[in-house]
Specification:
rod-shaped; mainly alpha; 3 helices
Length: about 70
């Protein structure tokens, strides 16, 4: 492999790595949004913090944070 080919390959790999990171961030954001929606709906149905956490598979601290945000809005 020539030095130019090697440099081109390294650039391609770096670009692909950045694309993977960007997609991973998008997926994490989508999961976070879905968890917030799930917790919000569960709280509005009168579920306890513990029940909401189990339903959404999140921590009770996460549920409390969502609950605080809802009460400030």
């Amino acid at each position: 492999m020539t030095p130019d080919e090697k440099a081109s390959l390294e650039i391609l790999i770096a670009r692909n790595a950045e694309s993977v990171k960007a997609e991973s961030r998008k997926i994490k954001q989508a999961i976070d949004i879905k968890n917030i929606e799930t917790v919000t709906n569960a709280l509005s149905m009168g579920m306890t913090v513990e029940q909401c956490a189990k339903l959404a598979n999140v921590s009770e601290d996460f549920v409390l944070l969502v609950k605080r945000q809802l009460s400030t809005n």
